[in-house]
Amino acid sequence: MWQDKLKEIIYILENSDVNEIDINFWGRKYRVVKSPGINIVDQKSKNNSQDVSQIDQLDSSDDTSISSSINSDHSNILSPMPGTFYAAPSPEADLFVKAGDIVNKGDTLCIIEAMKIMNEIEAESTGIISEVLIKNGDPVEYNQPLFKIKSS
What is the pTM (predicted TM-score) of this model? Predict the structure, then answer.
C-alpha cells in the first residue's frame, strides 16, 4: 500500500515544478528528489590551492568568483526549491536559527512551503550562521541564498 502512495508522490513530483518532497508516513521518512541536490563547496580548501597570481588572471566578468575566493571561510546555504521562507515553525514560536547561532549537521534551519507542503531545510555541515539573507514570509527561488555560514 505504501508503494502505491510513493508512486503517486513520484508522479506528482515529475509533473510539477517542485524539485524535492520529504514525507513521513507510517513511521517512515521518504525523500523524493527530481534532480540532484546542491552541494555546498568548502571554499577554504579551494582557496588553499589557488594562489594570488591565478586570481589576477581572472577576467573582470568573473567578479563573483573573485569575491567568493577572497571570502573563503563563508559559504551560502541555497534554497533547494521555490516557495515561501519561514524562519520559525509557527508565528509565535522562536526562530530556528539567527545570526551568530552554532548549527550542527542535520539541524533545521528554516521551512520552505511549496505547494502547501512544509519542507524543513537542514544544515549540511557544522558551522556558525553569520547572516540570515531572507525575511520571514518572503518568497524564495530555486538556488537563492538563504543563509551565510562560516564553517567550523
Answer: 0.53
**Domain boundaries, given as residue ranges, for the chain:** 1-37, 38-151
- pLDDT tens for the chain, 152 residues: list them: 556 766 777 777 777 777 777 777 666 677 777 765 455 555 554 444 444 434 444 444 444 433 444 445 778 899 999 999 999 999 899 999 999 999 999 999 999 999 888 999 999 889 999 999 999 999 999 889 999 999 87
Dist CA 113 CA 127 (whole Å): 25
The CATH fold assigned to 38-151 is: OB fold (Dihydrolipoamide Acetyltransferase, E2P) (2.40.50)
**Segments in the chain forming alpha helices (H):** 2-14, 43-48, 52-57, 63-70
